[in-house]
Q: What sequence folds into this?
């Protein structure tokens, strides 16, 4: 049973798109990152992505790079992630996924990583640099431990690839709204609606959209056609500047559960 | 009839357990398009003829094969020949690949090139190709490298290329590749990423090798012509490993020829400050390929160290990982100190200032020749002299303490804005 799909469907039952928030593990320290993720859930997040800091984050823009670099510099070890996932799962009703570059899973071994994530109560993993073509080991491990596996769909993906992405993903498909790295942007690309429509036509039940989302207007715009809206950089900047309280405030505004300031 | 090829022309995406495409979905379409263009280009006689014309009339191919008698006598008893990629236009082997990929980019209708560079040789080569073919060009270079290779930064600026210093991470080659990949994810419509070595996602390892295999083909013909026999050993330095794969490729299926790759041993393998990905690395994923990699127990990349910016890379091309596993090529590490000793020896005995990268291969040749003792008398070593050392004069002057004792003089000039 997919924990993430259940969380997205619960939002759908309330007549809205799911709100998906990203925060890096251990930023600025382990305790604060747990508090921030709990605050994110209080602010209305249905799904929480805990990003694992990685030395070579090629899909991340400057804000997230800066945060994860700081975490690595203070001696972060990957064991922390499972503690954080367990604490956040324990304290909230949100589905908690990790978002990780694949070498970190590869190094630990996909089976061990999946077992530890499942034991911590994690719902699954988003793997931004793992394409279905290379994912056989991860899919087997996720399957063995009943975890969701989220692959990305890009504006440039062919229909044939989208069918494979839809077939192999569990939980949802991560629709990339634009060609680029993470980071807040003033407008959301028109490509997003097209990616969602094509990915659904290719068989995906749930498609969430991320990259560049930073305002309530973006969330409403994307929520009209996607099953979930993913926000990362804006939340990380809020955590950096104002701590967990700022995360809760911004999440509330973005998710529509708190009034706009 | 030639025997069937065992190693030559191995196709991607996998070389044994290595290679593949460990990249964001957003890049798949561009890599598919690139692979199709590469295959159609290399089967198109008009493209091949144009590439060969530029290789001859612009790069200056074939490059010479020079016997280094005084150097050979200085280090042992074997005969040593140098494959003079240092004499290519722009001063290294890198132009073979940069020009080839720039021609492919034109074929694809791209108007902008981006590249990463460590020592600056690949950046200069790409900037040169961009100028020749009328393409825009941006080169990403670690901020640390822009300082130690300031002359090459100026050279790229003169060629009309914008050099972007990369300020995060270890500020070296690896970070420059990350930044180039970030650019490419956002710009694939208009831009071709001229990856500078036999690493990265498929089809780069195979394509970059294709453009460099001329090194090995020329060398094989030249050594047969000059000595009437195949060499006993062919040696090259290995960072990402493009010059090595280029020269090895001509000899991979000649069983009698020993192949040796020399990685940067930095301050010594025991110090942890090195770039010996094969010698001490473990298999993992970096920059789109599975290969040997310097990584910690969590899978975080470990910073590499080398006096040579061009070898200062924590991984290696996937085909090298496979050739190491099969035992066809022997890989060893050469320290900064051994490398600089060979650097000085070549300068003094042959009047050739090598790139510090290439000096690792010279040190390897010296080690090999010495290991044979007097048995080396009738043996032949070919060294891939992948680049010239003009760019390294400041580093060498500092190493050998040739600079005036002025406090300001140990900071090389900077000036990196386009």
A:
């Amino acid at each position: 049973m997919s924990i993430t799909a259940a969380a997205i469907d619960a939002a759908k039952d309330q007549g809205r798109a799911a709100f998906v928030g990203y925060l890096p593990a251990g930023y600025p320290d382990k305790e604060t990152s747990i508090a921030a993720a709990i605050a994110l859930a209080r602010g209305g997040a249905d799904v929480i992505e805990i990003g694992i800091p990685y030395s070579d984050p090629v899909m991340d823009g400057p804000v997230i790079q800066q945060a994860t670099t700081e975490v690595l510099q203070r001696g972060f070890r990957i064991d922390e992630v499972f503690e954080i996932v367990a604490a956040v799962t324990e304290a909230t009703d949100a589905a908690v996924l990790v978002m990780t570059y694949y070498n970190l899973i590869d190094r630990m071994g996909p089976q061990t990583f999946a077992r530890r994530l499942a034991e911590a109560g994690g719902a699954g993993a988003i793997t931004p640099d793992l394409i279905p073509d290379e994912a056989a080991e991860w899919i087997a491990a996720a399957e063995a431990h009943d975890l969701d596996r989220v692959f990305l769909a890009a504006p440039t993906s062919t229909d044939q690839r989208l069918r494979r992405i839809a077939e192999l993903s569990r939980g949802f498909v991560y629709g990339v709204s634009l060609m680029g790295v993470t980071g807040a942007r003033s407008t959301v690309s028109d490509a997003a609606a097209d990616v969602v429509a094509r990915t659904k036509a290719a068989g995906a039940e749930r498609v969430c959209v991320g990259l560049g989302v930073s305002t309530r207007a973006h969330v409403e715009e994307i929520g009209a056609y996607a099953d979930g809206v993913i926000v990362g950089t804006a939340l990380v900047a809020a955590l950096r500047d104002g701590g967990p309280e700022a995360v809760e405030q911004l999440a509330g505004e973005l998710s529509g559960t708190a009034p706009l300031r | 009839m030639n025997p069937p090829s065992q190693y030559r022309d191995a196709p991607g995406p996998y070389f044994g357990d290595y290679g593949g495409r460990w990249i964001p979905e957003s890049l798949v379409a561009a890599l598919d398009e690139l692979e199709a263009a590469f295959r159609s280009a290399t089967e198109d006689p008009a493209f091949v003829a144009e590439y060969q014309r530029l290789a001859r009339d612009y790069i200056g191919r074939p490059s010479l094969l020079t016997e280094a008698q005084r150097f050979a006598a200085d280090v042992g008893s074997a005969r040593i020949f140098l494959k003079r990629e240092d004499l290519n236009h722009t001063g290294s082997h890198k132009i073979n690949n940069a020009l080839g990929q720039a021609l492919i980019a034109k074929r694809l209708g791209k108007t902008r090139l981006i590249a990463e560079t460590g020592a600056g040789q690949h950046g200069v080569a790409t900037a040169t190709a961009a100028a020749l073919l009328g393409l825009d060009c941006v080169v990403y270079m670690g901020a640390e490298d822009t300082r130690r290779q300031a002359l090459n930064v100026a050279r790229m600026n003169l060629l009309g290329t914008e050099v972007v210093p990369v300020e995060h991470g270890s500020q070296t080659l690896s970070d420059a590749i990350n930044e180039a990949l970030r650019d490419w994810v956002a710009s694939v419509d208009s831009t071709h990423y001229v990856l500078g070595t036999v690493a990265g996602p498929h089809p780069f390892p195979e394509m970059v090798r294709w453009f460099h295999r001329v090194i090995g083909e020329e060398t094989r013909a030249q050594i047969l012509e000059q000595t009437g026999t195949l060499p006993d050993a062919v040696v090259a330095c290995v960072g990402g490993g493009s010059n090595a794969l280029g020269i090895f490729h001509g000899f991979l299926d000649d069983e009698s020829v020993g192949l040796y790759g020399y990685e940067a041993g930095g301050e010594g393998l025991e110090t942890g400050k090195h770039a010996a990905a094969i010698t001490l690395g473990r298999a993992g994923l970096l920059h789109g390929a599975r290969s040997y990699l310097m990584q910690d127990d969590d899978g975080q990349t470990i910073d590499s160290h080398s006096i040579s910016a061009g070898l200062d890379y924590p991984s290696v091309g996937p085909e090298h990982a496979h050739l190491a596993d099969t035992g066809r090529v022997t890989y060893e590490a050469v320290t900064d100190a051994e490398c600089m000793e060979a650097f000085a020896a070549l300068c003094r005995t042959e009047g050739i200032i090598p790139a510090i990268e290439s000096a690792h291969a010279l040190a390897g040749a010296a080690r090999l020749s010495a290991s044979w003792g007097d048995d080396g008398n009738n043996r032949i070593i070919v060294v891939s002299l992948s680049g010239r050392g003009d760019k390294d004069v400041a580093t060498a002057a500092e190493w050998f303490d040739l600079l005036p004792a002025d406090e300001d003089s140990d900071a090389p000039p900077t000036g990196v804005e386009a």
Observations:
- Residues 409-418 of chain B have pLDDT under 50 and may be disordered.
- Chain B touches chain A at residues 20-26, 28-30, 168-169, 174, 178, 181-182, 185-189, 284-287, 293, 295, 297-301 (CB under 8 Å).
- Residues 316 and 382 of chain B are 22 Å apart (CA to CA).
- The longest helix of chain B spans residues 204-227.
